[in-house]
Amino acid sequence: MSQDLADVVNEWTGLEEEYQHLQDTHKRYLQKLDEISKLQNNCSSSIARQRKKLKELSRQIKKKKLSQEDANTLAEIKDKLKTRQNVFTEMEAFLPKKNGLYLSLVLGNVNVTLLSKQSKFAYKDEYEKFKLYLTVILLLLSFICYGFVSYRFLDAILNFLLVWFYCTLTIRESILITNGSRIKGWWVFHHYISAFLSGVMLTWPDGNLYKMFRGQFLAYCLYQSFVQCLQYYYQSGCLYRLRTLGERHNMDLTVEGFQSWMWKGLTFLLPFLFFGHFWQLFNGLCLFRMARLPDCKEWQVLVCGLCFLILFMGNFFTTLAVVRQKSKKRNQKSKSL
Ligand code: COA
Fold first, then answer.
1. Both 286 and 326 in a single domain?
2. Could you report the per-residue pLDDT of 313-331, keeping only the tens digit for each?
3. Considering its fold, how many domains does the chain have in total?
4. Residues 204, 125: one domain?
5. How many beta carbons lie within 10 A of that of residue 201, not counting itself?
């Protein structure tokens, strides 16, 4: 055998051995996947069974008339029943579950549950980054439309991008909620309304009324993108600190440290947010005034006005509720220290 052929045969034998090893590893991997999916089914059905039985048990407990001693034992059981429900919810965060109506419609019945804490954090991190990149693009585009180019086609591109952005957010947020995020329903609803509003702006014909409102709308888009950038730094800061809290053994961060950082960030952000909310109210009122003009023929004026008003009310009251809830928690913490 020539030297050249011997080299080839040697190489091939090495590759063959590695290939055999790869096949074994892949076979083991498939077996483990099978095991995991069986374990997932076991856990899910066991949780469902336990939930059903717990429900029946709490119904029975309510009907019972007991002596003082028995009542104490029962109170203990009741306490445990409550904590058990929370444990089940935590367990379910790491088990595949059926998609809600919206995700089933958009994605079909594909599993969107992320099975580890790291992948949940990574998905949220990527969601925040996606929002930031798109927001910067929107900021630049609205700046160009506002200051340099007054061309309806470019406005249409901006509005189309807004529609796409908000629709994508609704999908990503539904996936986040499936994975245990506590995003309030209003913020998701806010994105549906914003997508609808941008869609209506897209169809508004290029008449006198559109020209009257255009500058104000573009300036508002600019401001909103600016506020969303600030929001990104706040929210990704919260995420980063929460993650380091979860891995606290090697990080110098305490729960109080996190709370005080969050409070400082929030108080910095709030004036900008409230200013944005009142700008939404102002937009709504301006559009209602325009709708009363005799030459106003476009339905878009009234519909956009209504959308701005709903956005104002939802944003303003939800933000107030969030601040109240956070300040209550903060006061309780400082009292208990
Ligand atoms: N959009 C998407 N997700 C949001 C959100 C928003 N506007 N506000 C809060 N969340 C998410 C948080 O990231 C968190 O998610 P997690 O459970 O996965 O960690 C969850 O909802 C709970 O957040 P919460 O603790 O209630 O609030 P926060 O401290 O993260 O943020 C505010 C508080 C007030 C800063 C935030 O709600 C906000 O920016 N609101 C104003 C938005 C607005 O008005 N925009 C228009 C500007 S013109």
1. yes
2. 999 999 999 999 988 888 8
3. 2
4. yes
5. 24
pLDDT at position 337 is 61
Ligand 1 atom 1, closest CA:
187
CA of 251 to the centre of ligand 1 (A): 25
What is the secondary structure of 16-40 as a DSSP string?
A: HHHHHHHHHHHHHHHHHHHHHHHHH
Residue bearing tokens 């069986």: 38
Same domain membership, residue 287 and residue 324:
yes
pLDDT tens-place string over residues 149-161: 888 999 999 999 9
Give the tokens for residue 31: 């077996």
Among 131, 176, 235, which residue has the most ligand 1 atoms within 8 Å of its CB, making it the best to mutate? 235
Give the model confidence (pLDDT) of 248-267 as tens digits.
544 455 667 777 788 888 99
146 and 61 in a common domain:
no
Confidence at residue 336, expressed as pLDDT on a 0 to 100 scale: 65
Ligand 1 centroid to Cα of residue 120, in Å, is 17
3-state SS class at 66? coil
Task: Give yes or no for residue 92 having a pLDDT over 80.
Answer: yes
Say whether both 183 and 130 belong to one domain.
yes
32 in any annotated domain: yes
Q: Can you give the pTM of this predicted structure?
A: 0.85
Dump pLDDT digits (tens) for 163-196. Answer: 999 999 999 999 999 888 889 889 999 999 999 9
Based on the fold, state whether residues 311 and 249 are members of the same structural domain. Answer: yes
Q: Which long-range contacts (CB under 8 A, 24 or more apart) does 77-84 make?
A: 81/54, 81/57, 84/50, 84/54
Neighbour tally for 280: CB within 10 Å: 21
Tell whether 223 is covered by a domain: yes
| Domain end (from 44, 67, 96) | 96
Instruction: Check whether 28 has a pLDDT greater than 50.
Output: yes
Are residues 281 and 210 part of one domain?
Answer: yes
Domain membership of residue 296 as a residue range:
116-336
Which residue of 175, 224, 231, 232 sits with most ligand 1 atoms within 8 Å of its CB, as the best mutation to test the pocket? 231
Q: Which atom of ligand 1 is nearest to the CA of 184?
A: 21
Cα 106 to Cα 11, 109, 126, 139, distances in angstroms: 49, 9, 20, 28
Number of residues written out for the chain: 337
